Amino acid sequence: MDTLRIDRRVVLVTGAASGIGHAIARACAAEGATVHLADVSDSVHEAAGKVTAAGSGSVTSHVCDVTDPDAVRTLVDDVTAASGRLDVAFLNAGINGVPSLLQPGGAIDELPFAAWRRVMDVNLDGLFHCLQHCARVMKEQRSGSIVVTASTAGLRAEPRVSYPYVASKAAVVGLVRQASLELARFGVRVNALAPGPVVTNIGGPGPRPEAAVAAWEDSIPMRRWGRPDDITGAALLLASDDSSWMTGGVHVVDGGASALTQIPSTVLPAPAPDAGSTAAGR
Ligand SMILES: NC(=O)c1ccc[n+]([C@@H]2O[C@H](COP(=O)([O-])OP(=O)(O)OC[C@H]3O[C@@H](n4cnc5c(N)ncnc54)[C@H](O)[C@@H]3O)[C@@H](O)[C@H]2O)c1
């Protein structure tokens, strides 16, 4: 798409070893950007090889755990030292890996605090560290675009994923909006992308029963799960000057799923026996 203008931009992508982050890194490279991939997994080096093959700009890879503030500071300093500036940051690293509230162990009174903390640590605290250091550089240079991967699960209740995932992504949206207010006067834009269900290591049908998979597809008007490449067009738009008056927004990319007003309550377990007057049917 020649209307997008991120060629020669310096781009950082966290969570770039796989899934959505990897697809974004590839798409940026294909547009001629200089791309720095970061991930907690050392498979990021192999991923960078694939990104190099997809583009013409220079590509580097960095092992970095976003939950470690010192490591994030070093990452951002290394990127700016190597490339002279930081134009675009896709802050995308995230995990789930905790039972949903429909799965054994996922109920509020069963969920271990450690599981809650682990997801909040990566999805929220990790984003905070990245945002803090990217903002430091971009404020100074008086320009930049930060694109955060939130989720439609942060925009409403979603029984098919876990408590900490939903809570962390809702908080991510608040953080993005708040940062957009502060950074606007420095010429720095901050937006959230909110993907719906995308087939990746943490998203997709997984080991769910066939009927649950079919029901999930039925909740998407476009009748299919997303693919990582479905997210890249919106990601590049938010990165480029084509979105120069867009900041503080939450941009849904979900095959139309959020346009449906509600998920039927029949996806939830039946009312518990002897439940009080708030349960269905009383
Ligand atoms: N797949 C979906 O359905 C979906 C939907 C909405 C939002 N998202 C969000 O998209 C983002 C990317 O997820 P994905 O679906 O591509 O999954 P993914 O597992 O394929 O990619 C996530 C990447 O983040 C990395 N990562 C995890 N913890 C990290 C840490 N502490 N430091 C640095 N990197 C870390 C992983 O190693 C992995 O490479 C996440 O923020 C996720 O919450 C995914």
UniProtKB/TrEMBL annotation:
GO molecular function annotation: oxidoreductase activity, acting on NAD(P)H, oxygen as acceptor
InterPro entries: KR_dom, NAD(P)-bd_dom_sf, SDR_fam
Entry keywords, A to Z: Oxidoreductase
Keyword Oxidoreductase belongs to the record: yes
Keyword set includes Cell inner membrane: no
Record-annotated Ketoreductase domain positions: 9-208
PANTHER family documented for this protein: BENZIL REDUCTASE, CHAIN DEHYDROGENASE, PUTATIVE (AFU_ORTHOLOGUE AFUA_4G08710)-RELATED
UniProt similarity note: Belongs to the short-chain dehydrogenases/reductases (SDR) family.
Protein name (record): SDR family oxidoreductase
UniProt source species: Streptomyces liliiviolaceus
